[in-house]
Amino acid sequence: MPKLAQRMSRARPSAIMAVAEKAKALKAQGRDIISFTIGVPNFLPGEHVYAAARDALAKDSGQYGTNRGPDALLDGMLKHLRECGVEGYERKHLCTGVGNKHVLFNVMYALLEEGDEVLIPTPYWTTYVDICDILGATATLLHCPPEQDYKLKPAQIAAAVGPKTKILLFNNPSNPTGMVYTPAEVQALADELVKHDVWVLSDDIYNRMIFDGIPYAHLLNARPELRDRIIVLDSVSKTYGMPGWRVGFAAGPEAVAKALVSLNSNHITNLPEVVIAAAQAAYDGPQDIPKQKAVEFQSKRDEVLAAFAKIPGVKCPKPAGAFYAFPDISVAFGRSWKGTKIANDVDFCNALLEATGVAVVPGSAFGEPRAIRISYTCKPAELTEGLRRIQQFFGELA
Ligand SMILES: Cc1ncc(COP(=O)(O)O)c(C=O)c1O
Question: Which is the closest atom of ligand 1 to the Cα of 101?
Fold first, then answer.
């Protein structure tokens, strides 16, 4: 067989999916499994979204669409940005794609040369590093340990930027930690970023999932002169409970949007009509679902924090957004469960799954091996039971 491209030796499947698949396989064998693994919102969009999709199907044009995305969808995305306080973009600054992940890949493809450096606050969403690897860029990890609430500090940027640095990735609220930067923290980061000629990819996918009345602050508003180097990434996946519909977009300088349109024209061509209609209905329709879900997730977050607070030695910096908690469980390292030693996060997750049927993702998948990620969007009864089993598991460690 002829060879695959060299770059494919650096491509790997998502570590999160591997744990989720293991939990699924055990469930199929009849085990009582509670999965806190995949970051899916676990709610469906409103009926208006399905009605719009059915309508589009009935009117199907059967034609190709535009590479950038139709005006009405772009207008819906612009409205969403304005509702999040991100003003000043026009259609020419946008390009759609098959979810945030696809758009992110295209943005990084459009910006990076082999050997360029990407600064990634760590813990990070796994895909950031995976895309760097595929593209031959260097992922430089900026460690933000639990002791600093998993948040990036301006001095870390100042110390890390070098001649090869091309991009800083910024995800607020964060996957996997659920951390939300306060307006003062965003301001301090923006004040540092203006000093450096570096692209900033602002992954805003959880921008409607913020708790405790914390205002959503954006780098763009903190220092408007960053506009020529910030690229905002977003999608319908988390906000509207539509991860499977695969609609995302980037907003940024016109030249970047144009580059993304060119990539689309040689790649996906366009988003499907039915999918476009559904996404447009989500953006244009009632906005009560994301608001209700943020309230629901806040109370689930409280339940998760209360459960971990009862486990001696476990520290869980308080998440204020998204739907993840990222407790530091390193107190379990060196202990054992039924004679099996737990040396690290992967051992911990395997033992927890084996002992209790609760699946969580090892923190090392996100660059922080002292922690585990809990995605808590499951049914309330499952959450309560899963947390009870985790507490019991800690109690049984020798
Ligand atoms: C931080 C972050 N960015 C991007 C994505 C990808 O989202 P999409 O479904 O729009 O591709 C995810 C999904 O988990 C995410 O957590």
Answer: 11
